[in-house]
């Protein structure tokens, strides 16, 4: 996105990319990953993880339609 000078899209994706990197770096040693199945049920974190997943899903759907609109607009203008 930076190479093609799409600054708005880059700035829109920057917070989500930063959050994903933060979540990946902060995984405690010994866990299988960010969403360790045994830890989610043991600590009762299922609701918070589902909330985070739904927010990310909404963001990615919004981005998908923005990218689709941009592609169609670019094809029409050519």
Summarize the structure.
The chain crosses the membrane at residues 6-25, 57-76. Keywords: Membrane, Transmembrane, Transmembrane helix. The protein is an all-alpha fold.
DSSP helix count? 3
What is the CA-atom radius of gyration, in angstroms? 17 Å
Structural class call reads mainly alpha
Helical residue percent? over 70%
Question: Looking at the chains present, what oligomeric state does this protein adopt?
Answer: single chain
Main pleated sheet:
none
Rounded to the nearest angstrom, the distance between the terminal CA atoms is 20 Å
Query: How much of the polypeptide forms β-strand, as a percent range?
Result: under 5%
Family: Belongs to the cornichon family.
Main location: membrane
Transmembrane segments: 6-25, 57-76
Protein name: Protein cornichon homolog 4 isoform X3
Structural write-up:
This protein has three helices and no strands. The chain has 78 residues and is mostly helical. The protein has helices spanning 7-25, 37-43, 46-77.
């Amino acid at each position: 996105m930076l190479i093609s000078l799409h600054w708005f899209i880059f700035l829109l994706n920057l917070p989500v990319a930063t959050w994903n990197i933060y979540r990946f770096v902060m995984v405690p040693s010994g866990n299988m990953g960010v969403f360790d199945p045994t830890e989610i049920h043991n600590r009762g974190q299922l609701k918070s993880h589902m909330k985070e997943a739904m927010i990310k899903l909404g963001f990615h759907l919004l981005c998908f339609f923005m990218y689709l609109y941009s592609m169609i607009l670019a094809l029409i203008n050519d």
